[in-house]
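Blinded run. Sample ID left blank on purpose so nobody reads anything into the name before looking at the predicted structure. Input follows.
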Amino acid sequence: MSEHRVVVVGGGFGGLQLVNDLKGAGAAITLVDRRNHHLFQPLLYQVATTILSTSEIAWPIRHLYGNRPDVTTLLGEVTGVDSAAKTVSLRNGMTLPYDTLVLATGATHAYFGRDEWEPVAPGLKTLEDATTIRRRLLLAFERAETEADPAIREALLTFAIVGAGPTGVELAGIIAELAHKTLPGEFRNIDTRKTRVVLIEAGPRVLPAFAEELSAYAQRELEKLGVEVHLREPVTNCSADGVSIGEKFIASRTIVWAAGVEASAAAKWLGVAADRAGRAVVEKDLTAPGLPDVFVIGDTAQVIQADGKPVPGIAPAAKQQGSYVAKVIRARIAGRQAPAAFRYQHQGSLATIGQSAAIMDFGRIKLKGWLAWWVWGIAHIYFLIGTRSRFAVAWSWLWIYLSGQHSARLITQKETMREES
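Blinded prediction complete.
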């Protein structure tokens, strides 16, 4: 008999966990991704804010599986799935047959029907997003240094972040520390301590997924860093000149979007139901309805728990789903009974506020402050791939802690989304 053909679309946390757990299962695995690297997204904001370099949080997928002859890695973009013929189509014209298909294609940022805002308010999902935001952040200070018009200079030194989830909060805290603590001695014509960092949230509090007391603590810590927090104020417009919240206009030349996510087109490829964010509504074993040989995991899927709440779109959830699907595929190949329905085990939620405070919510156990920051750091270093990356990230954090200097403040990417002056 020929080997069982497994096609995995997406090299994120869920896809890689699945491939890792299928080692030795007797499957011929093809892993397809639009990019040649796996990205550790929880630290992406640190690339955007000059703390880490791109190579410290991303690894070539082909290298990760260089010693796995059962894994074929392809750089390509999926354009459709023929579930009747059991094939996957790529943009380059290639067609991949499968016995089992796993869609782990992730999500991108959502603008709630206002996609025209994206050029002036980029989101943060890829390395390209991070380097674009880093470039705009650093260029804003450089241009303010040579700007004679006080109004334009103030707009250049105003950074608006839309969305107060973990990404928005972490970005706001680091930008404030960069402006108020790291840069003041390096400029002669501007006082970077006068920088405004504005965090805008349509909901009633920051970090709404956390307990209320932790959310309140996070807001207090942000305000101590000088961040202006605007709650219950949805954005009504974004432009190259600034952001509007209701009738109020905030002049800002640097806007970052951290307000929402939209799933990939996986549900459309399969012709199955999707939720408002475009996530495919899956069965209890993570298969697409009516398609027992197609699994959908991670940010691409809406998985409902026993209590009726959806599984959160975070890395540990995607990894658990990838591991579960690997067990199901192994059982099918071996002719054994598949495991029971997927059950998500929540391992806690973490978020940082600057470089010395964090919050952690493990249900009964809640931590905040300096100790939570250390636990957060250790946990993230542990989940990085490879000793070299763990050492490099730990050293970068230690260097910033001791010196106050960020190590990745290089303007290297050509700006393509906004005309340079």
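Unblinding after everyone has recorded impressions. The first helix runs from residue 13 to 21.
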